[in-house]
Amino acid sequence: MSLTPSLTAMTLMESSLVVSVSGDWDEDYLQALQQALILRLKQSDAKGLILDLGTVSSIDSLFVRTLVDTSRMASLLGIRSRISGINPGVAASIIALDLDCRGLVFERSIDDARTALSKSSAHLSSSSNGR
Prior knowledge:
The radius of gyration is 15 Å and the shape is globular. The longest helix has 20 residues. It has a five-stranded mixed sheet. The termini are far apart. It is an alpha/beta fold. Helix 3 links the parallel strand 4 and strand 5. It has four helices and five strands, in the order ββαβαβαβα. Helix 1 runs parallel beside helix 2.
């Protein structure tokens, strides 16, 4: 059973869109989620994207490719992204399957991701003010 992205929790917290990715996913869900995310990012004033994988128990190359592509799309919109909440089994799968995660930045929790994004946002603001 695949959840539609409209049933996926998407919450704007401070200046980041926090998305809880369903542990029950398939290719159709991932495609629809990616499209819904990009649309939501374009419509919001979010400066960060946090994809929380706390309920995801299995992962494959399609899943990782979707994360990488979504992160790249967000970046093209000027939005930084973080992946949070992966469990040890998912981390082990990424390594065992030798999945390419270049471009993804992982944080331990949503709070850690929010902190990292706010720090990078503050750093960017101070850098641009110094010009």
